[in-house]
Design brief:
The protein is mainly α. Helix content is 67%, strand content 0%.
């Protein structure tokens, strides 16, 4: 036998699901890392790599001479 929608909303199982969803949403918003932070970390890593590259001595490459081999 199907229950009317108004009565179905007041059932313990439905209320439990609603409570779980609300609690989950609250916890997710509280503990989820902000999206902006990942971009800031990416920029910081790029800056560190650039600083490292500047400190390294230039790499010497062999030049090939044109002409006979």
């Amino acid at each position: 036998m199907a229950m009317p929608a108004a009565e179905e909303r007041d059932q313990p199982v439905t209320l439990h699901r609603v409570m779980q969803t609300m609690i989950g949403d609250g916890l997710r918003s509280h503990y989820e890392a902000p999206r902006r932070l990942s971009h800031q970390l990416f920029v910081l890593m790029m800056q560190l790599n650039e600083d490292e590259r500047k400190r390294e001595p230039p790499k010497r490459t062999r030049r090939r001479h044109r002409g006979s081999a």
